[in-house]
Amino acid sequence: MQHIVKSLSAIALLSVAAKVDAQSARICLLATGGTIAGAQAKPGDYGYKSGAFDVQDLISAVPNLSKLAVITGEQVVNIGSQDMNDEVWLKLANRLNAALNSSGCEGAVITHGTDTLEETSYFLSLVTHSDKPVVMVGSMRPATAISADGPGNLYNAVAAAANSGARGRGVLVALNDQLDYARNVSKTNTSNVQTFVSLNRGPAALVNTGKITWFQPMDKKHGSASAFSIDGLTKLPRVDILYAYPNMSVDLIDAAIRDGAQGLVVAGVGDGNMTQPALDRLTEAAKSGVVVVRSSRVGSGIVYRNNEVNDDKLGFVASGELNPGKSRVLLQLALTKTKDPGQIQQMFDEY
């Protein structure tokens, strides 16, 4: 690790100690680990260990970051985002809400691994009740890689969080000179830096070296308009995702219900379809009180209600634009309020 620390120190030396403008925004940086804080075992390795560096290392590695804002850092967790879970979500959301409720925090930046960044950002957009800017940021290359993208992404994220145009836009995701709304964005490539894309709608803004060009605002409920709350919650309802495929059986449906799933999201073929045996079994599940949401394993498009599958008759919910991962997030929060599929469908339409 010695060569890694030296390389980060060398980068930090490029950042001349700048006098912070008295008018600079006060930004809270909450770190959770991920590739942006990752390190290779040796130079040139494809693999790496997520969360090898802490929040102060990340801040120190970005030249001139102090010219953008007055930054305070906190390490909430330090994990690869493949290990993200409901417990960490609740912890992170509570810390974020507390920070945003403080007069000393005018906006927040959250560093996060890219594997589950889209789910965490959507979750936070639904349970963070503030109009202050919140920007999620990650990277596709570890901190020790040649041409690491983390420092540039973090610089742009802080610039966005300090920008008045970000107020009221909900949680944003900053990667590769682009800002996307948490609800819309998906990871589309396993390794390329151009991986986060809002497939159905397009970006919220373009950002290059801290300069931002804003596009249209989000038209779905989020932030202060959201009815969801985690106050008093210690866990979230269990919701499982089932992947549809040719010859899909009912075994996994039965197992999920038997093990306590209150909701099921089907990553359906095409427009949320599945085999007839699976459809029949899910119909029985819906009648017994398990909430069933039809989403799609296809990367883009809309799962329309009552298109091919009669959702009204079967008691299902159609996911609309939401992919299976985000459908699961919304269904978990919806189940903290109701198990009525009609009311939950309205939530999917509004959020």
Question: How would you characterize this protein structure?
Answer:
This protein is of the alpha/beta class and 351 residues long. The protein has two domains: 2-225, Rossmann fold; 239-350, Rossmann fold (3-Layer(aba) Sandwich), CATH 3.40.50. The chain has ten helices and 14 strands. The strands form three sheets. It has an eight-stranded mixed sheet with strand order 2-1-3-4-5-6-9-10, sandwiched between helices. Strand 11 (239-243), helix 6 (251-258) and strand 12 form a beta-alpha-beta unit. Helix 4 runs parallel beside helix 9 (324-334). It is globular, with a radius of gyration of 21 Å. The model is unreliable at 1-22 (pLDDT under 50).
What's the gist of this structure?
This protein has helices at residues 2-13, 55-60, 86-100, 117-127, 150-161, 251-258, 276-287, 311-314, 324-334, 341-350, and strands at residues 25-33, 69-79, 107-111, 134-137, 171-175, 178-181, 186-187, 196-197, 205-208, 211-214, 239-243, 263-268, 291-296, 317-318. It has 351 residues and is of the alpha/beta class.
Please tag this protein with its features.
single chain; about 350 residues; alpha/beta; Rossmann fold; 2 domains; eight-stranded mixed sheet; four-stranded parallel sheet; 10 helices; 14 strands; about 30% helix; about 20% strand; globular; disordered N terminus
Q: What is the beta-strand fraction?
A: 15-25%
CATH class descriptor name of the largest domain = Alpha Beta
Largest sheet: 8 strands, mixed
- Side by side, the strands of the main sheet go 2-1-3-4-5-6-9-10
Number of DSSP helices? 10
